[in-house]
Amino acid sequence: xxxxxxxxxxxxxxxxxxxxxxxxxxxxxxxxxxxxxxxxxxxxxxxxxxxxxxxxxxxxxxxxxxxxxxxxxxxxxxxxxxxxxxxxxxxxxxxxxxxxxxxxxxxxxxxxxxxxxxxxxxxxxxxxxxxxxxxxxxxxxxxxxxxxxxxxxxxxxxxxxxxxxxxxxxxxxxxxxxxxxxxxxxxxxxxxxxxxxxxxxxxxxxxxxxxxxxxxxxxxxxxxxxxxxxxxxxxxxxxxxxxxxxxxxxxxxxxxxxxxxxxxxxxxxxxxxxxxxxxxxxxxxxxxxxxxxxxxxxxxxxxxxxxxxxxxxxxxxxxxxxxxxxxxxxxxxxxxxxxxxxxxxxxxxxxxxxxxxxxxxxxxxxxxxxxxxxx
Length: 375
Fold this sequence. Notes:
Order of helices and strands: EHEHEHEHEHHEEHEEEHH
Low-confidence stretches: none
Number of strands: 10
Strand content: 5-15%
Helix content: 55-70%
Number of helices: 9
Mean pLDDT: 82
Largest sheet: 5 strands, parallel
């Protein structure tokens, strides 16, 4: 703020009149005091930006007044310019030692005083700018630290849920993360044609449940007063106490939207894994059933093969023992033996076919096992 309020302190009324005349055309708000105690009393209500302070005064000299001003936390910011007829180096050094910002020696020219006051006015402006820059930098630093802490919570949440396979565990972890930001959170999850509700306090109130139902198909984001509702296909989150600070409000809103999005994706992953596990169980059951039926079929085929083999061996033995006694000529014996041999060969061929079927079934069984392993 530019220089506006000046307090002139001098025990000589004539000196105060001169100061009033010099400063008359500068439109400063000027008050005067005739002693050190009066000066200290006035600054409690007037709050001057600059004090033109005489050094040589009775009761309380200017140095003591300056010390009192600079020792008080409520007034130490006031700029003090000593106005003195004594301007030695020692006296100037003493003035600066007690905290004064400037020193002017009587008699001084009108232009010199005005120039010093203009310099002090610029110094006050520069000081205000610097204080604002420091305040902005401090605010930025605190915002950066807050953001860093918040992002740390978000990263921890993402790492934590990467191995979660349970819906309740997932949503409770999200609520815990949001609660670390000081948020009062309610959540609705829609899976398996059912709605499940979670809250920081443990239970969602009936009005919150109704609000989820009304707004679940009304778009991604709703803000009203200090509340915010974020909707995804499977997850909706309602925050009841959004921060009033504009910068923090925007930052927290972005965090909420990101966390709900991540939670939605993890929920989809859980449901996908659950479906894949169900399919794998179904395939395992089907493989077990097929394997059982295959073994039963192969058992029947092997039994049939052994029975056929036994019949043909018995037939062959009977022919070999009976034909020589039947009085057949050589051609008849050859005809009978050749037909018996052909029947036996056909039986062997069927046996090889059974072996091929068994081999094929084993390949199918291996393929199904690989399929279930990949699932």
